[in-house]
Structure formats: C-alpha cells, structure tokens
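Write out the bound-state structure for 1-O-phosphono-alpha-D-glucopyranose.
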Amino acid sequence: MIKKCLFPAAGYGTRFLPATKAIPKEMLPVLTKPLLQYGVEEAIEAGLNTMAIVTGRGKRAIEDHFDISYELEHQIKGTSKEHYLTEIREVIGKCTFSYTRQIEMKGLGHAILSGETLIGNEPFAVILADDLCDNTQGNGVLSQMIEVYKKYQCSIVAIEEIPKEHTNKYGVIAGNEIESGLFMVKDMVEKPEPQDAPSNMAIIGRYILTPDIFDIIRQTKPGKGGEIQITDALLTQAKKGMVLGFKFQGKRFDCGSVDGFVEATNYFYTKDKING
Ligand code: G1P
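---
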C-alpha cells in the first residue's frame, strides 16, 4: 500500500516576497499552522507515515519545524502554554521525515524526480502544500484518492472544475468519465490558454504516482516555461497505460496566491470559531 508522500518544497515563493525572503513559503501560517503542516496532516489522515520533502537552499526552517525544539520544550514544560505544542508533537510522533535538495529549479517534474532517492520503487503520493484542502464532509482529499488507487492501481490526479478563463494557471485534463467523477485521461496540457484548453477540469496539487513515472520524467523534454512538467510525463503515462482524473469532495484554496491565502485564512478562522 502507499506509505510515502512527497512534498516538493524547493520553490522561491516569489509571489509572497518580501515575506518569503528568509522564510520558506511552505512555512507561511494559515492561522497558527504552517501550510506544510496542513499537508502532512492530510497525508497522515490518509494512512501515510513517511514524508519525503524536496527542499532547496534556505529551507532549513522546515526541518526544524518537524523536530523537537529542546529549548522551547524546556521553557514551556508544565506551563499553561504547553498545549500549543500538542498538535505538532503528535504529527512528529506519527511519521518520519526525510529530505533531499533540488539543486536546480527545473520544474515540478524535475522536483518530483529529485525525490526518487527518498521514494524508491513504490507508488507514492504527492502534495503541493500551497493547494490547501479541507474536507467539508468525511475524508481528506488524499484519503479519497487512496480509495480510488486501491481499485485501479494507477496514477491519479485530483481535479476541480474551474472558470475557463483560468486554465492558464493549471494543468488541464480531458477524458472519459468511467465512474461518477472519475475520468480516464485522454489529454493533459500544462497551463493552456482558454482557447486551447481541452476542458475546464484543472489538476490541483494532489497526485498518486506509480514509480514508472521516474523513468518517464527522465525522458520528458522541457515543456511549458522551459521546465520539466509532471503534466507532460503523466500524459505519456496515460498513453502507455492508464491515468485517472478524480473529482474530489471538499474545499481547495490556492495559497500560492495572496487572494487564496486570505480566503483560506478567513475560512479556517470562521471554522475555528464555530468549532470553539
Ligand atoms: C503545478 C502544476 C500544474 C497544477 C498546479 C496545481 O503548477 O504544474 O499542472 O495544475 O501545480 O496547483 P504551479 O502551481 O506549481 O505553477
């Protein structure tokens, strides 16, 4: 079964400068929790216990976050503030973390390939932490995808319908619906202009990938923006075998943009208030 989750986290976060000058964008908090921790919690909820993080220069805060801070523990032990650490302590206790660095920024496909050394020859999940998801009913997005994987044992991408004018911000798929909300991918294009988009079904940052994807990425030529795109590699995989697009249940926030980040913050703030 799937045990490992890869987190590409080497990007510069230029849209959040100057905040991301010294802080990794994955560490920006929605309320009091960094984006990456939301992703790790979603992976744990889906039954995964091995987090493989692809980092880059200037990302050491990520490693420190998923570790014990002895000084802090010592300072607040036995005080009324100790409960603030409960959640992160639980996360650290439930999984292991390993890291590798992406040396050059050559795109998402390349970032995923950089993680091969941490993943090996087994199927794995990928979470892009700046797509923040919340399960409005029942299971988290990754958990839903694992159920689909159990049945079909192939690569799966999470999809969402978006306004057609936004297709140039996403990978876009087209395919045949084989079950309600489940599409066999026939076409997949990275960030097409609306007039060239094969549909309005956008890929969001949740993937399950079978390990043959690594060899395919190695053979994938740079595509959109001169970068090695996972979307292009997945189209090759779809043509050779099968890739599925899965319309998930739940809410997704694009925390890679300031608007989405503010929306997520308001949403989780309101949710927290309601739940006390
Ligand atoms: C990446 C992928 C794109 C996908 C998106 C989801 O783009 O390349 O196919 O739709 O993530 O967030 P990025 O947002 O990193 O530019």
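---
The chain is about 35% helix and 25% strand.
The chain has a mean pLDDT of 95.
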